[in-house]
Write a structure and sequence with these properties.
By secondary structure, this protein is of the alpha+beta class. Helices cover 40% and strands 13% of the residues. The chain has a two-stranded antiparallel ribbon. The protein has a two-stranded antiparallel sheet with strand order 3-4. It starts with 31 loop residues before the first helix and ends in a 9-residue tail after the last strand. 6% of the residues are buried.
Length: 159
């Protein structure tokens, strides 16, 4: 009786390609360009708002009333959380777009305050709370007296 021997299997030396799986959810906004496009659409939406004013004899008149840009409203527009926005701020490709958006929000709030659009007191509170703006600057003189000036601009700090 002849013995049958089975040939030993050689180990496969196939190259395995490394597949890197990304952790977490996919990005809600895939590129900085998509973020910028959404921002432009959001601004158009805010700028085209109007409200109806009822004049005498019940006649309705549509008056333009631009909305003040806020990051919170933009986040709702994007359907993302404040935490997600912070995560985008940590991604270098998005930094320039986010910085420009935040600067435009600040400029629009400032413009609304100057032009008496909305609650001026509310806008002032927002700027103090979110941008560190202080209405007074104290300048100390070497002669031993303090001079206080009301400037009300960004970068005002108490010394």
């Amino acid at each position: 009786m002849a013995k049958t021997t089975k040939a030993a299997k050689k180990p496969t030396t196939r190259k395995k390609t490394a597949t890197v799986k990304k952790a977490g959810r996919p990005l809600a906004i895939e590129t900085p360009e998509a973020l910028t496009d959404n921002w432009e659409r959001f601004k158009e939406h805010c700028d085209k708002k109007h409200f109806e004013y009822v004049a005498s004899a019940g006649k309705k008149i549509a008056l333009p009333k631009r909305l003040v840009y806020t990051l919170e409203r933009f986040m709702v527009w994007l359907r993302i959380s404040r935490e997600t926005w912070s995560n985008y701020k940590e991604r270098p490709p998005y930094l320039d777009a986010i910085k420009r958006i935040e600067e435009e929000v600040f400029a629009r709030k400032k413009e609304a305050m100057i032009n008496a659009e909305g609650s001026t007191a509310g806008l002032i509170f927002d700027m103090k709370a979110n941008y560190g703006i202080n209405e007074k600057t104290v300048i100390q003189h070497e002669g031993g007296f303090d001079i206080t000036m009301d400037l009300g601009g960004p970068g005002s700090e108490s010394k």
